[in-house]
Specification:
By secondary structure, the protein is mainly beta. The chain is built from 2 helices and 16 strands. The strands form 3 sheets. Strands 11-12-13-16-15-14 form a 6-stranded antiparallel beta barrel. A 6-stranded antiparallel β-barrel has the order 4-5-6-9-8-7. Its main location: secreted.
């Protein structure tokens, strides 16, 4: 299913601009002309918005890492690559995202159906500006194979107006070597309250055990772009965590292997939770964050 193209404001585009070729452009207040999309690449298979002068000049290190803890509230200041997406600078997050370069966030495509204007990066809380940093989102790209039905290739890359000061999370290798059947991973987001689809106030983590797709297929339909897990006891991924990162915690640092997508039954043991598999999207993500689509 093709997602509906959304324009936040009316802009004067060159005559060669194809409105159906780009997914979603977000214009913040007082953006300079250098951050307004120009021409689309007519030869690209991506839904691309070209954005000028957004490559980072510098970034400071804030690389705080912790060992695996039990399910619960994330200690403040430890997982600062997690971001919340919102409409206003101090508003409430409606989706989670992950910082994968100083100016790029990785999120699920369904998030782009909302009015994304701001990202709150490194913040512990679901709303407000009391910690972390709030940066405008200037452009969004969705994976060219993304389909809402079945959450196939459920990936979007968001471009920030300026570099974040926080350290990005490492991406899973394209050969899928960062994913092991039976390995423990962590999902994060502003978890809902006991499966009631209400966003929590503090950043929450759940420990989950990764499954091979062959084992997952015994429970539910799964494709190559998806990754499965079974929760510990009653722990699965509920709606409040949508688009949040699934990470494996290594001594060298966290590695994002998936994005939360859906669960067959929230908080029921034995039912798989389904994630988007990051490794399969590296061939698309890497050129985007390395500047191929932005000049």
């Amino acid at each position: 299913m093709k997602l509906v193209t959304t324009f936040i404001s009316v802009l004067a585009f060159p005559s060669t601009f194809r409105a159906d070729s780009y997914q979603h452009f977000v214009q913040g207040d007082n953006l300079s002309s250098d951050t307004i999309p120009t021409l689309l690449d007519e030869t690209s298979n991506n839904r691309v918005v070209q954005v000028k002068n957004v490559l980072p000049k510098s970034t400071s290190s804030n690389d705080i890492r912790t060992p695996l803890e039990k399910t619960g509230i994330v200690p403040i200041g430890t997982k600062t690559y997690v971001a919340g997406l919102r409409t206003t600078v101090d508003g409430t997050n409606f989706c989670s995202a992950s910082l994968i370069s100083p100016i790029h966030l990785l999120a699920g495509t369904s998030c782009t159906l909302e009015d994304i204007r701001w990202a709150s990066i490194g913040s512990h809380y679901v709303n407000g500006t009391q910690d972390g940093e709030q940066i405008k989102v200037v452009a969004i790209l969705t994976h060219p194979k993304s389909l809402r039905r079945g959450f196939t290739y459920d990936f979007a890359v968001l471009v920030l107006q300026k570099p974040s000061k926080f350290t990005p999370v490492a991406l899973a290798k394209s050969d899928d070597s960062d994913v092991t059947d039976g390995e423990w991973a962590v999902t994060m987001g502003w978890d809902d309250d006991e499966g009631l689809s209400q966003m929590g106030y503090e950043l929450f983590r759940s420990n989950v055990q990764l499954m091979s797709n062959s084992n997952c297929a015994k429970k539910t339909k799964v494709t190559e772009s998806l990754l499965c897990s079974r929760g510990a006891a009653s722990q699965t991924s509920c709606s409040g965590e949508y688009s949040g990162p699934v990470v494996v915690e290594r001594s060298s640092g966290d590695v994002i292997v998936g994005l939360v997508t859906w669960g067959d039954d929230c908080d029921k043991p034995g039912y798989p939770s389904i994630y988007s598999r990051v490794s399969i999207a590296r061939a698309w993500i890497d050129p985007v964050i390395n500047g191929v689509c932005f000049h």
